[in-house]
Write a structure and sequence with these properties.
This protein has one domain: Helix Hairpins (Orthogonal Bundle). The radius of gyration is 16 Å and the shape is globular. It has six helices and no strands. 76% of the residues lie in helices and 0% in strands.
């Protein structure tokens, strides 16, 4: 099992975002802005869904990595730290998913 974490990825994205867009895909996405990065995130989400439906394990792993990477880039551009997202997930563990979804409708 890898010891690489999403926090590690967040640090790498932050560092690469400061590079020249000519030298870094991350910097290029950040320079293009949130609409471009969010569109790429959506594309990766669709590709992940397709891999899951088709039962392609290797593709699911690869597409999931792409999805998580692009999510971290979108969070970076949006000024949202991964710790905030993890805090929200932690907050939600105190109730069932059904209850949590029901509370959103009110």
């Amino acid at each position: 099992m890898s010891e690489f974490t999403l926090a590690d990825l967040e640090r790498i994205v932050a560092k690469r975002a400061e590079a020249s867009p000519d030298e870094s895909w991350t910097a290029k996405l950040v320079a293009a802005g949130q609409p471009k990065a969010a569109k790429k995130l959506g594309e990766e989400a669709v590709e992940t869904v397709i891999a899951a439906i088709e039962g392609e394990r290797a593709a699911l792993v690869s597409e999931s990595a792409d999805l998580l990477y692009h999510l971290v880039v979108v969070l970076k551009i949006g000024g949202v730290e991964l710790a905030e997202v993890m805090g929200e997930l932690e907050r939600r563990t105190g109730q069932s998913g059904i209850s949590e979804k029901a509370s959103r409708k009110q």
